[in-house]
Specification:
The structure holds 2 protein chains of 2 kinds.
Chain A lengths: L4 E8 L8 E8 L5 E8 L4 H12 L2 E2 L2 E7 L5 E6 L3 E2 L3 H8 L3 E3 L7 E3 L9 E3 L7
Parallel strand pairs in A: 5-8
Antiparallel strand pairs in A: 1-2, 2-3, 4-7, 5-6, 6-10, 9-10
Chain B lengths: L6 H5 L6 E4 L2 E4 L3 H12 L4 E4 L15 E3 L8 E2 H13 L4 E3 L3 E5 L11 E7 L2 E7 L1 E4 L3 E3 L2 H4 L9 E3 H9 L8 E5 L3 H12 L3 E6 L9 H8 L6 E2 L2 E7 L6 E6 L12 E4 L2 E4 L3 E3 L2 H5 L24 E3 L10 H21 L2 H6 L6 E7 L1 E5 L2 E2 L5 E7 L3 E10 L2 E5 L3 E3 L5 E5 L1 H9 L4 E8 L4
Helix pairs in contact in B: 2-3, 2-9, 5-6, 6-7
The chains are: A alpha+beta, B alpha/beta.
Chain lengths: 132, 452
C-alpha cells in the first residue's frame, strides 16, 4: 500500500519581475522525498513550470558575497556564482570563499575561483577594482 | 575703529572660482545619473556628472545581490554588474566626471548674466568649482528613514543601524555590525540584509513588520527569508530598545488594525543589533534650495511629462524623484530625463516651451488607494507615462482616470501591491478629452472593485 502523500504548495516564481503565484501539487513518499510534481498552475509562462519542478527537487540560487582585495582602491570585491548553484551548497561555499584574497586590478567577469565545490560553476568578479 | 567687512566681497574671490561650461550638468553618478548623462550625451549634449563618492555606481556598488537587469539587459545581474555596464559606457564617452565632488548649491541666487543658464557649485578635491549648463538633471537618489523618524522608545545604545548602512559596512567597508540581529521592517533592503547577515555568520532572530503584509518584493521574501528559515512577524513592531552601551534586546509587540501596539503582547527578543528597513526618502535639499517645488506625497519634485521640475531647465529622475523598487525602472526613467534635458539645452531653453501646446496645463492628482501620481503636471497632448503606487494591497481594483468628475478612462481589473511601482500609459486622446471637458485637473484613482 502506498504511503505517499499529496500536498498542495503555494510559492512565487522568481524567474522574472512578474512573480507569478504558483500553486503546485506534489507527491511525497514516506521520507518526505518528492516523488512527482503532479501539477503546476498560476504560471503565466512555461518558465514557471520549469521553476516549480526545479524548486521542489533541487532549489538553485545564485550566490553573491564579497572577497578581500589586496592592493585595490576598494577593500572588498563583490563576487557571484556565474550561474545558480544548489541552495544547499551555499553555506559550504561561504566557508570556502571567506578565506580568499584577490589582487587588484580585477575586471568584471574575472574568475575568482574555478569550479566551485565541483558544481562546474565558477565564482566570478561582479565589478572592476583598480589598483590603489 | 573701522567696521569689520568681509574682504571676500571686495576682492573678487567669488569671480575667481573656476567655471566650466556644459549643456547638461547631472548631479549624482548612480544608476539615474549615469543613464541620464548617457542619454543626454547621445542626443549631442556636452555633459558633466558630479558624484560625491570616489567611484561611479551609487548605491548599486553595495547591492551585491542578484535581481537587477531583468528588463533592461534581459538577464539577471548583480547590482555591481549592472552598475559596471553603465560605468563602462560612461568611460567610453567624453562625459566629464567630477568625482569626490560634493554639490553645495544650484543657482546661488545671485543674478547671473544669462538667466537661462544654471550654475552648479561644487567642492572638489582641488577646490571650489562652478559648472554651468542650460539644463541640470537632479539624480541624487534617496536616503533611509531613521529611528528618529519612526520614534521607537527606549535607550539609545550602540548597535542600531539603518539596513543600508549595515549593508555598506558588510559589503564595502569589511566591518561586522554585530552578531545577533533583529530586523525591523520588511522593505527590500531589510530582507536582503537578513540573508546577507545569515551568510556572513550573523544570526537573524526575525524580521518584524508593522503592516499586515510584507513591504518588499515577493522574490525577496522567498529567497532571503524562506530559504534560511528566518521568521517574518507581520503586524508586529519594536516597541522598546533595551541596553545601555550596546543593544541587549528589543521588546516587540503586536499591533491592532489602527497600528497601535496591543498591551499584553510584549515579548523580549535578545539581540545586539537592530537593523531598520523602514522606508526611503528622496534626498532633495539641493532641489529645494534651487527653488524646486516638492510633492508632499513622493517627497520628490513635482515634474511634468518630460520630467522637468517647476524650475525651467531643471529635471529630476530616479529615487530623488520618487522611490523605485527596480533599478531597471530608474534607468528607463532617467534616459527620458537625460534626453529631455539635452533637447531643452540644445533647443534653446525657454523657446522649446513656446512650442509646447500652451492650451494644455493639467495637474494630476491621486485618489482612491493611489498614494501618489507622477508626473504631477501635464503640458502636452501626447501619450504620457503615469507612475503610481497603491497604499495597501488589493486583489481586485482598477485604474480610473477622471476629469471634471467624469470617468474618461478605466483600466482592467487586477491586483495591486504597495511594493510595486506601477506604470500606466495615458493615451493622448484621454488628455484631449479632459481638455475638451474644460478640466484643469486629471485624477488618477485606483478603486477596489467587488469580484463578480
Amino acid at each position: 500500500m502506498s504511503t505517499n502523500v499529496t500536498e498542495t504548495l503555494q510559492f512565487n516564481c522568481t524567474t522574472c519581475p512578474s512573480e507569478c503565484l504558483l500553486t503546485v501539487e506534489v507527491e511525497h513518499d514516506a521520507n518526505g522525498t518528492v516523488v512527482e510534481v503532479r501539477s503546476v498552475t498560476g504560471n503565466n509562462c512555461p518558465r514557471g513550470d520549469t521553476f516549480a519542478h526545479q524548486e521542489l527537487t533541487c532549489p538553485m540560487r545564485v550566490l553573491t558575497t564579497t572577497v578581500a582585495v589586496s592592493g585595490g582602491d576598494e577593500a572588498l570585491l563583490p563576487v557571484r556564482t556565474a550561474e545558480a548553484i544548489p541552495l544547499e551548497l551555499h553555506a559550504q561555499a561561504m566557508n570556502l570563499i571567506r578565506g580568499l584574497v584577490v589582487n587588484a586590478p580585477i575586471r568584471m567577469g574575472d574568475v575568482v575561483l574555478e569550479d566551485l565545490l565541483d558544481t562546474n560553476i565558477d565564482l566570478v568578479a561582479s565589478m572592476d577594482i583598480d589598483p590603489a | 575703529m573701522a567696521k569689520f567687512k568681509s574682504s571676500a566681497i571686495d576682492c573678487g574671490v567669488v569671480e575667481a572660482v573656476q567655471t566650466q561650461a556644459f549643456d547638461v550638468v547631472v548631479i549624482g553618478g548612480g544608476p539615474a545619473g549615469m543613464a541620464a548623462a548617457l542619454a543626454a550625451h547621445k542626443a549631442g549634449a556636452r555633459v558633466a556628472i558630479v558624484e560625491r563618492e570616489q567611484h561611479l555606481g551609487g548605491i548599486l556598488r553595495q547591492c551585491i545581490h542578484p535581481g537587477f537587469g531583468l528588463s533592461h539587459f534581459k538577464q539577471e545581474l548583480t547590482g555591481p554588474e549592472y552598475a559596471q555596464r553603465f560605468i563602462d559606457q560612461v568611460h567610453a564617452t567624453d562625459i566629464a566626471l567630477f568625482l569626490n565632488s560634493m554639490v553645495i548649491g544650484i543657482d546661488s541666487g545671485e543674478p547671473a548674466e544669462d538667466t537661462a543658464v544654471h550654475t552648479v557649485t561644487l567642492m572638489s578635491p582641488t577646490g571650489m568649482l562652478q559648472l554651468t549648463g542650460r539644463a541640470v538633471v537632479l539624480a541624487m537618489g534617496c536616503r533611509e528613514r531613521t529611528r528618529s523618524e519612526i520614534k521607537i522608545p527606549g535607550s539609545r545604545p550602540a548597535g542600531m543601524f539603518t539596513a543600508g548602512l549595515a549593508q555598506r559596512y558588510i559589503n564595502i567597508e569589511n566591518l561586522k555590525p554585530g552578531s545577533r540581529a533583529v530586523i525591523l521592517g520588511s522593505g527590500d533592503i531589510g530582507l536582503i540584509m537578513a540573508r546577507r547577515c545569515t551568510l556572513e555568520g550573523i544570526s537573524v532572530e526575525g524580521v518584524y513588520e508593522l503592516m499586515p503584509y510584507a513591504n518588499g518584493l515577493r522574490r525577496n521574501v522567498k529567497n532571503c527569508l524562506d530559504d534560511f528559515g528566518i521568521p517574518l512577524h507581520l503586524s508586529t513592531t519594536v516597541t522598546r530598545v533595551i541596553g545601555h552601551d550596546r543593544v541587549e534586546a528589543v521588546e516587540v509587540s503586536q499591533v491592532d488594525e489602527r497600528l497601535a501596539s496591543i498591551a499584553g503582547t510584549e515579548r523580549i527578543v535578545p539581540c545586539d543589533t537592530l537593523l531598520l528597513s523602514v522606508g526611503l526618502i528622496p534626498e532633495n535639499e539641493l532641489s529645494v534650495a534651487a527653488g524646486v517645488e516638492l510633492d508632499p506625497r513622493t517627497r520628490g519634485a513635482v515634474v511634468d511629462q518630460s520630467l522637468q521640475t517647476g524650475v525651467p531647465g531643471i529635471f529630476a529622475c530616479g529615487n530623488v524623484l520618487h522611490v523605485h523598487d527596480l533599478a531597471d525602472n530608474v534607468t528607463t526613467e532617467s534616459e527620458r530625463a537625460g534626453a529631455a534635458a539635452a533637447a531643452y539645452a540644445l533647443g534653446g531653453g525657454a523657446e522649446t516651451n513656446a512650442v509646447a501646446d500652451t492650451s494644455c496645463e493639467l495637474t494630476v492628482s491621486p485618489a482612491g488607494i493611489a498614494g501618489y501620481a507622477l508626473p504631477g503636471r501635464i503640458t502636452a497632448v501626447a501619450l504620457t507615462k503615469l507612475n503610481f503606487r497603491v497604499r495597501r494591497p488589493v486583489d481586485t481594483a482598477r485604474v480610473r482616470i477622471l476629469a471634471n468628475g467624469e470617468e474618461v478612462f478605466a483600466g482592467k481589473v487586477r491586483a495591486f501591491k504597495p511594493s510595486v511601482m506601477e506604470s500606466f500609459p495615458l493615451p493622448a486622446k484621454v488628455i484631449q478629452r479632459a481638455l475638451d471637458l474644460g478640466a484643469s485637473e486629471i485624477v488618477l484613482s485606483v478603486d477596489p472593485v467587488e469580484e463578480a
